[in-house]
Amino acid sequence: MQRLKIMSIFGTRPEAIKMAPVLKILKEEKKYFESKIIVTAQHREMLDQVLNLFSLSPRYDLNIMEANQTLFEITKKTLKGLNEIFLKEKPDLVLVQGDTTSAFASALSAFYHQIPVGHIEAGLRTPLIYNPFPEEMNRRLISVISSLHFAPTYWAKNNLLLNGISPKNIFLTGNTVIDAMLHISKNIKSAPQLLNKLKNKRIILVETHRRENFGKPLEEFCKTLKKIVKNFTDVEIIFSVHKNPKVREVIFKKLVNSAQIHLLEPLDYPDLIHFMKKSYFIMTDSGGIQEEAPSFGKPVLVLRKTTERPEGVQAGAAKLAGVKSSKIYKIAEQLLKNEREYQKMAKTINPYGDGKAALRIVQAILYFLKIKHYPPKEFKG
Ligand code: UD1
Hints:
By secondary structure, the chain is an alpha/beta fold. It has 2 domains: about 5-175 and about 355-370, Glycogen Phosphorylase B (Rossmann fold, 3-Layer(aba) Sandwich); about 195-345, Rossmann fold, CATH 3.40.50.2000. Helices cover about 45% and strands about 15% of the residues. A 7-stranded parallel beta sheet has the order 3-2-1-4-5-6-7, sandwiched between helices. The protein has a 6-stranded parallel beta sheet with strand order 10-9-8-11-12-13, with helices on both faces. Strand 6 (about 150), helix 6 and strand 7 (about 170) form a beta-alpha-beta unit. Helix 1 packs across helix 7 and helix 9 (about 215-230) packs parallel to helix 10 (about 245-255). It is globular. Uridine-diphosphate-N-acetylglucosamine binds near residues 43, 44, 67 and 209.
């Protein structure tokens, strides 16, 4: 049997984390697949951390990152780089993950070459095309282009059905981030030293990077954090500061002089997991962290006006805190003061996955390519 050539493309740190479990299984299934990795490197340092961590070796590296580059540049460079690779490699299937501009431009490139696309983490939606920006439009467009849709949850599957996508092309798999997180948790290295110093403190882990939060919302977050440490002397804030200059300018300017606030370079994935496990609760606009935190019993305050991940909110593990300081502070204060409220949020079951999403995705590919006769059993969230 001729092996099928699958090219998996990604550009940022979270895509690499969420793609890694699938790449591991594709590599093991050598009998069926020739698996090649392309990175756009929309992120550089943050992507390379994850490539090392999961021992991933890209066959091609478009190396597109430049400081403060625009969406036009990311799209243009990805389209051009992939055109040359696809002409030479002629893959049977392209895999993309999530909703970054790398993922969208890769799906579009594959479409221009009439190569089928499989979309991992398909079907997430908000009702607003500019929130999150540009991710909401990216994922809608990827859905239109894709032939295979790997929905992480029942809600995501239903969104795809409402968009008119045929049920036979949708596979309910769970989210691969849980596979990655369980794998790293098992093989975790020693804890960051800072944790020893914070032994009897309540740690709030903070991470924020979304474009729609640049400017005023970021300033509101800083105001909230300052008020929290002023009123709760046993609280220490660990802020993993994203590499984006638009984030750094505000955070370093507003928070640099506070003794209870630790501004750290973007935490590598194992350290992030350590801090998540030791935190009291988490404040973030990140999607992946919203998905991981319930596994550690950590409440999440989602620093956004809307979320494409309502499952965590419905399960009681997360609260949509918005972007105004007064509202965010009120929710944080309640968690810090009211043990019963806190326990209600901490004791929920993770609705996002069971650690077998990557296996289901590979089985679905084999089924789609008519190598296996049965589709995988659906993830029961
Ligand atoms: C990108 C994705 C976002 C995803 C996020 C995860 C888009 C439009 N945005 O946002 O969906 O949730 O990644 O982190 O696809 N930089 C570095 N080194 C790095 C990474 C970034 O210096 O390792 C700086 C560069 O100046 C870069 C800037 O950050 O130009 C912005 O990066 P970009 O990928 O455009 O946007 P993110 O905010 O990282």
